[in-house]
Write a structure and sequence with these properties.
Elements (H helix, E strand, L loop, with lengths): L1 H16 L43 E4 L9 E8 L3 E8 L14 E7 L20 E6 L12 E4 L24 E6 L2 E7 L11 E10 L2 E6 L16 E4 L3
Antiparallel strand pairs: 1-2, 2-3, 3-8, 4-5, 4-9, 5-6, 7-8, 9-10, 9-11
């Protein structure tokens, strides 16, 4: 009886081994094990900036300082987002930004509308859509030398679509968490935001973003911006819309 059982077991194994590949599976027509595409980081934030020229320009979102704007120290910003990171490149006017030894008095802010919704968040002081839910606050220098950007993250706690400096205290994510890192030279910088470290949920595939740079804690440049006119005395425009590359 035992011998019969063993023979039956071998026969079953042989049947499984000889089972033909299911080539009718629409998700795997060849019948082979599906290959997992390896992620290749498109930009290395090393302060050399050459990676940006290799990107599909149609998927890089850009804001430039508009002539006649209220604050013009921030000249250019580019944003590229994929499933793992949000990459940012920006330039500033070195004549308007001064560094002092051992003084971190030139903060750089990222304002993120992570859910992409128009009816949440706030901070209409610099963008007309007033939908920022998180403010990243950090520094580009350790006093005189350009350093890695590693900010704290603060949540909007004011009224929906409101204005004012209404951010959580303490931060929802302390500086030094590693959510951002970057490198650059005086006047040019690139950084990355690690999406999975964002503390307020998932960053949507379509989101919006804004940036400012300050001198002695006063804003001297922000992007996107607009021309100051009689119809738009603030010079504010909507934040920059970005679509994630998949």
């Amino acid at each position: 009886m035992k011998k019969v059982f063993v023979l039956m077991a071998f026969a079953a194994l042989a049947l499984i081994a000889c089972k033909p590949t299911n080539t009718d599976d629409p998700n795997n027509p060849g019948g082979d094990d599906p290959k997992v595409e390896e992620y290749v980081q498109p930009i290395t934030c090393d302060g050399k900036f050459d990676d940006w020229a290799k990107l599909d320009a149609s998927k890089v979102y850009t804001a430039k300082n508009v002539e006649g704007s209220k604050h013009d120290a921030l000249k250019l910003v580019k944003v590229y987002a994929d499933k793992a990171f949000i990459f940012v490149y920006f330039e500033w006017d070195t004549e308007q930004i001064e560094w002092e030894l051992d003084v971190e008095h030139v903060p750089f802010h990222i304002y993120l509308n992570a859910d992409g919704k128009a009816d949440t968040g706030g901070f209409g002081d610099q963008w007309s859509d007033a939908c920022t839910e998180a403010c990243f606050e950090g520094f580009l220098t350790n006093g005189t030398d350009i350093d890695s950007y590693d900010p704290g993250v603060y949540q909007w706690v004011g009224e929906a679509n409101g204005s004012g400096w209404e951010w959580s205290d303490p931060a929802v994510l302390d500086a030094g968490s590693g959510i951002c890192s970057g490198a650059g030279v005086n006047g040019k910088y690139e950084l990355q935001i690690v999406r999975e470290l964002y503390p307020l949920g998932t960053i949507a595939d379509e989101f919006s973003i804004g940036f400012d740079i300050q001198q002695s804690w006063d804003t001297v440049g922000y992007l996107p911006n607009g021309e100051v006119t009689d119809d738009n005395p603030s010079g504010n425009v909507p934040s920059l819309k970005v679509v994630t590359v998949k």
